[in-house]
Amino acid sequence: MLRRMIAGTTVVLVLLGGCGIPDDSDVTDLGPGPSTGISSGDGSLRSRLTRESTSDRAQFVTNYLQAAAGDYDTALDRVKQFMSAPAKEQFNAPAAPRVIRTIDTPLLTADQDKVKVQYELLGTLGKNGLIEPPAEPTTGTYEFTLTEVTGEGLFMVEAPPFLLLSTRGLDNFYEERTIYFWNTEYTGLVPDVRYLLGDVPIEQEPTIILGWLIGGPAPWLQDAVKPLPDGTRTEGKVPAIENNQLAITLSAQAVPTQDADEAVERLRRQLQWSLRRLPYEFLKLRIGHQEVRSYSGTDYLSSNPAHRLVPNPDRYVVYDRTIRRLVEPDRPTPDTVPGLNADNNKDVSRAAVTTTGSYVYAALVTGSGKNERLRVGFAPAGQVATLREITGLPGDIGHPVWAITPEGDTDGAAGLVIADGKLWRFRAQGGKALQVTWPGGTGQVRAITVAPDGHRVALAVGGRLYRAVLTISGDGLALSGMQELDPPLESVTAVDFTSEGWLTVAGTDRSSKRIAIMDISIDAALQSDRLADIGTNPVSYLTTYPANPETNRPTGSTLMYSTGTDAWEGLSTSVQLKAGSLAGPSSEPRPGVVPGAPFFLD
């Protein structure tokens, strides 16, 4: 099933005719309304912590670091409620809260007048719901001075001159929301994850989300997506849900005069995806002074490649130099590999196979040592691919990954692979590999993953984690918008997308100094342990099939990973994949031969 692709979206045009939307257009009823889905949070704001909530000094500072959460324009007032009168007068912080991850618990000095907090700066939370990372990771210690007034409790006497928001406050009081922008080829939507205050009334959500869309994409995405046209704004009545309808009026500039029909179609799909969590059935859209158009149904879902992700993907490993399918307990699992047969499924060490419905694309690393090479190919679904060599790669070839796998024109299909610590791109037709570089790019590339939208990527470079976008230029693929992320791990060695807004990463835990695997948000501000301690052997590779955004799962399916030549399945604990895990007729395990290099059928 499709995973990483730039969708060849079939756009169902609404025949509006002329320039813009004609005055006499009729309602277009497209069937049942969009799924409302659920939010990533619990939909309600946690109890607000006040100055009087505790008499414990360490907890007081912990509560203080959550006070900035809430309405953006009144954050300063909430923070000042923790302060003494003189401190309030002197405290004038910038409006954007600094989002910090605290390290360990707040530490009290001997006299208990001061509390010290070790922190990592993750970025600033803007009114647009984005956390913008700092230019480079920053760690340090903040010092807070407290005093106790008899009968009144604790007061903050002195604090750093910033609004500070801990990741605990972010997690407690905000929900992740995803808006969407069309990629530059207009073939698919690209997710842009924001933070929405948890207690925002549902009546206000359409206005906030439209404001985010009009404000444009996150800076790191700008080279890969199209913003709404200049001059786009909401007009007339504030968007609200009434009688199961969401009515939106946008200025005439929202749709260009050239190719207006296609532009309107793209716009309504973009709006339906960005607003899909709201409980409405009909989207009523007016552009300028034109007639209202009505949309419902689920045809808009096809504009997001991630919607094609299946709930139970096929899993594969390499066993005895052959790609083998893993057994699935709940369904038949014939030991076959799409696009391959016995003649080309041999002498394999690593592989990536993806299908689009129309085509299957395969990339196989074959041979060993100095004779290792990458062979790639494609074929119509149900047929066998002809594999061709990718030339020009140095040694030490890693796991290939497909980045662009079109439904129709296979000429544009391309993938990425790491070789000799550098990133290379290749075409499905074979031929010479070309190195992918980026401004300031240094260090050994250890891992690369491409999101289902085919543009967003995450990389492990020199032990550090980055996010970036793939753009299509005249000579192929390029990386831009590179931003370093700061997960609570040292020496990040592996990464994969686990949903539209989350990554799974592996590395050394900063506290325990043991190998850990965790899920983190796309900005590294939130985290959740997958496997907190798997020993001392570094993870060389991991893979997890991303969650479909229309499901309730926040992260992807079962994790699989490699340490050395061994392959593991990450459940509540690590379980090694063995010969008994293979589909097809069982055979006597060969001594010293174990499954390795696991992957999902994308």
Automatic annotation (TrEMBL):
- What lineage does UniProt assign to this protein's organism? Bacteria, Bacillati, Actinomycetota, Actinomycetes, Micromonosporales
Q: Where is this region: Disordered?
A: 25-47, 580-602
Mind telling me what this protein is named? Lipoprotein LpqB C-terminal domain-containing protein
Q: Which InterPro entries match?
A: LpqB_C (IPR018910)
Q: Where is the Lipoprotein LpqB C-terminal domain?
A: 326-525
Report the superkingdom from the record: Bacteria
Q: Where is the signal peptide?
A: none
Coiled coil location: none
Pfam families, per this entry? Gmad1 (PF10647)
